[in-house]
Amino acid sequence: MLNDMKRRNTPTKQAVLSVLSSSTKAMSPDAIKKKIDVSIDRATIYRVLNRFCDDGVLHRVVADDGKQYFAMCQKCDENEKPLQHFHFRCTHCETIECLPLPVNYTIAKGYEVKNVNCVLIGVCKDCA
Amino acid sequence: MLNDMKRRNTPTKQAVLSVLSSSTKAMSPDAIKKKIDVSIDRATIYRVLNRFCDDGVLHRVVADDGKQYFAMCQKCDENEKPLQHFHFRCTHCETIECLPLPVNYTIAKGYEVKNVNCVLIGVCKDCA
DNA sequence: TATATTAATGCGATTATATCGCATTAATCG
DNA sequence: CGATTAATGCGATATAATCGCATTAATATA
Ligand SMILES: [Mn+2]
Ligand SMILES: [Mn+2]
Ligand SMILES: [Zn+2]
Ligand SMILES: [Zn+2]
Hints:
Chains A, B: It comes from Zobellia uliginosa. By secondary structure, chain A is α+β, with helices and mostly antiparallel strands.
């Protein structure tokens, strides 16, 4: 937990985590909502996802379609930094996946990189 | 020109190009609009920018704020592919710049990368 | 130069994503 | 059980971007 606010365990949070942990892909709030049987308010979904990101449970990718996608963090527990990796958006099956491909860069002196948001766009191996 | 549709030369297009060619940064449609003296409709700005992207005159970056930014293409004339490079969004001065830093990746076999959208987020050298 | 063609524009409406305020509900703890 | 307050539902709101359509004007042609 990066945030010290007390969190409560709720069915909504459990359901969201359940959906994302059983997915190999990053998912949009709407796609997550659709995967949950019971009706959950849109605003609640967003708030749950944002809190999980704050807490380092999930990470967020903004794709080139301007939308947010969420996925489980792998190395986020432990005090390790979350692994910065590329994402892949397949224009055919319209999915976004976390690639096991770290983002490497050698940036000019003076810049301070705090975060990255990197998406490769094309056709995934399942659709090729 | 990647597109064979006949384009007409208009004051709006000239103004947009003038603004972007005198900027080292990628700019949002709204920022571009503000830099132009005469009033131009929002929809027109978007259409002009989209056409320029289609024609390979400009390229588009979607930042992690979900917004679109536009910048001149360097290697887009000629029949060369446009250079795929990282961008940098400074959270302090709120600008987005094209970095002279190519995006390199070795992706698993089967994937076909058609485009990239890569943004590094942090504090730029002018703000550090 | 005058006229025809149609790309480009202005304007309003529309779509879509995401957030916010506030009253209510319910998780947690003593 | 009762108190505290995090979490939720609902409606309103903010913002980005696009679309339909009538009008304007850039360009080509006579
Ligand atoms: Mn990821
Ligand atoms: Mn660029
Ligand atoms: Zn695919
Ligand atoms: Zn800066």
